[in-house]
Specification:
alpha+beta, 4-stranded antiparallel β-sheet, globular
Amino acid sequence: MAGHSHWAGIKHKKALIDAKRGKLWSKLAKAIIVAAKMGGGDPDANLRLRYAIDDAKSVSMPKDNITRAIKKGTGELEGGNLDEINYEGYGAGGVAVLCEVLTDNRNRTAGEIRKIFEMSDGKLGSTGCVAWMFESKGLIIVSGKNVTEEKLMELVLEAGADDVRPDGENFEITCDPAVYQDVLSAVKQAGLEPEVNSITRLPKTTVDVSDPDVARKVLKLMERLDDHDDVQNVSSNYNIPEAVMKEIGEG
């Protein structure tokens, strides 16, 4: 994937995790609560819960916090009343933006998300306005330092992956969510530690943003949305060419 996509910022985001650990744990706890609420508190029988717990463990979330979140989801403790909502809209330059949200107050969150869009020359849209532009995929990113593209492709395609693409110094593996665990296990069993692994929404096509001012507004919108306590995941279809990233000082 050329230029700067949403995923190119993940490494930078991971470096900020320590500074925002409390907020991150809060978001992950919400994901665990909803997963347990929907499918029960046993991670062996609830795949979504298992993934949520794995995400929490990957950033050293304490076991007590994880257990408490599961109990809130199953109703053993209070605090499990969360709604799962998607907010859709457009950023500067007409890029599509899809926010996955968990909230205990729909009205408050809707107002805050709308304001964030407007602050960055964007606009919150109606349900379904951009969701069709994205598809749910398993995404695994590994460093290219320890494996060749040919070897990695052979490994993950055999496990059921759709594709392997170079992304800078890394390789981006995509797969159907149904085989995500198989592909992830194959990668780890080969001794490769993923830089990123998650089930997310990826754009079917991308929109090039070549105007530096528009690019700044798009990146600021992403940053503000990602920083909101109720936002679990933000997907967008923008692609900022490397030359533009360097011009605005983000390259």
